[in-house]
Write a structure and sequence with these properties.
With about 110 residues, this protein is an all-alpha fold. About 65% of the residues lie in helices and about 0% in strands.
């Protein structure tokens, strides 16, 4: 009984000290192998366009050109969000605690 309580205490302490934040692993499109899928090619094109827009000297542009660039950036970001809907698995801290507690109850 004493060993079981000590085991549960140690397991909970380890679970609480482990960082279990919701995070997502995104593959780097710039450093990856040659791209084959059409959606990945389009994503690469959008990223390069965003980089060229960021590199532009905005002070020399007219008001209408700045406005069109802002619209283009917004549309590119919106398209990137819609194409990359399933990038990873999310687990919250509360869900991780519940999983650990269920595992403890099972064993």
């Amino acid at each position: 009984m004493k060993l079981k309580k000590r085991f549960i205490t140690i397991t909970l302490a380890l679970a609480m000290t482990t960082a279990a934040f919701a995070s997502e692993v995104k593959p780097s499109l710039r450093n990856s192998n040659p791209i084959e899928t059409p959606s990945a090619v389009r994503a690469q094109e959008m990223l390069t366009r965003l980089e060229t827009i960021k590199a532009m000297d905005v002070n020399t542009l007219t008001k209408a050109e700045k406005k069109s660039l802002r619209r283009e950036v917004k549309s590119i970001k919106k398209e990137m969000k819609t194409t990359n809907t399933s990038n990873g698995v999310y687990i919250s801290v509360g869900a991780a605690i519940i999983i650990v507690l269920l595992l403890i109850l099972i064993f």
